[in-house]
Design brief:
CATH class of the largest domain: Mainly Alpha
CATH superfamily of the largest domain: Tetracycline Repressor, domain 2
Distance between the termini: 59 Å
Number of strands: 0
Order of helices and strands: HHHHHHHHH
CATH architecture of the largest domain: Orthogonal Bundle
Shape: elongated
Helix content: over 70%
Number of domains: 2
Strand content: under 5%
Radius of gyration: 19 Å
């Protein structure tokens, strides 16, 4: 058991070294040697766990997505649902150094999701899970009367993911126009409009 735990911990350390390196140098310029330097180990150590750069990248992206899932799971489940959903959506944005690093790597990864079938499936599966999870929350808000009865939870969840992705892109690429405060204000504005429909209906 300890040997398995040590193996898993070493793979996690390699994945985190990869993410830090890609965030600093970009995916195309990152080599096994760079990851080994970041890890404080040897190239042989990295290759002991990952035979190719694509294997390493795939594990790194899976690790990246797991960190995002853990962040969502850590959000306190307290009513009203509107506030809960806002807090969850807020975790999707690069609002601190850790998330900026992760989402910078995510943007580096996306072109591979277009060209590589395995990466595409990983991205598709993770995005579907995120949309489905948000849709469940919005459906709960609808059933509790916080949203209109005829609202389409899945469509609104997809729109929310698209908004978060767009804000992420601009926060990272044009922070002078989309700083953290602006991104948070725009996200809150979206929730104000979405949930105000119930008040207008009433």
């Amino acid at each position: 058991m300890p040997r398995t735990a040590d193996h898993d911990e070493r793979r996690r350390q390699v994945a985190e070294a990869l993410l830090r390196t890609i965030a600093r140098k970009g995916l195309a310029a990152t080599t096994f040697a760079d990851v080994a330097d970041e890890l404080g180990g040897s190239v042989g150590l990295v290759q002991r766990y990952f035979r190719s750069k694509s294997d390493l990248l795939r594990f790194g992206v899976e690790h990246l997505y797991r960190r995002g899932e853990e962040r969502i799971e850590a959000v306190e489940r307290v009513a009203p649902v509107r506030d809960l959903m806002f807090r969850i959506a807020h975790t999707l944005l690069p609002m601190d150094e850790e998330r900026r690093m992760e989402l910078t790597v995510w943007l580096e990864f996306l072109p591979n999701a277009v060209r590589d079938p395995e990466m595409a499936e990983l991205h598709r599966t993770t995005t579907r899970q995120l949309v489905d999870g948000l849709a469940e929350g919005l459906d709960a808000a609808r059933r509790l009367g916080e949203l209109p009865a005829d609202l389409d939870p899945h469509a609104e969840a997809a729109a929310l993911v698209a908004l978060a992705d767009g804000l992420t892109l601009h926060q990272l690429a044009t922070p002078d126009l989309f700083d953290d405060a602006t991104a948070e204000r725009l996200l809150r504005l979206h929730f104000d409009r979405l949930f105000s429909a119930r008040a207008e209906e009433a």
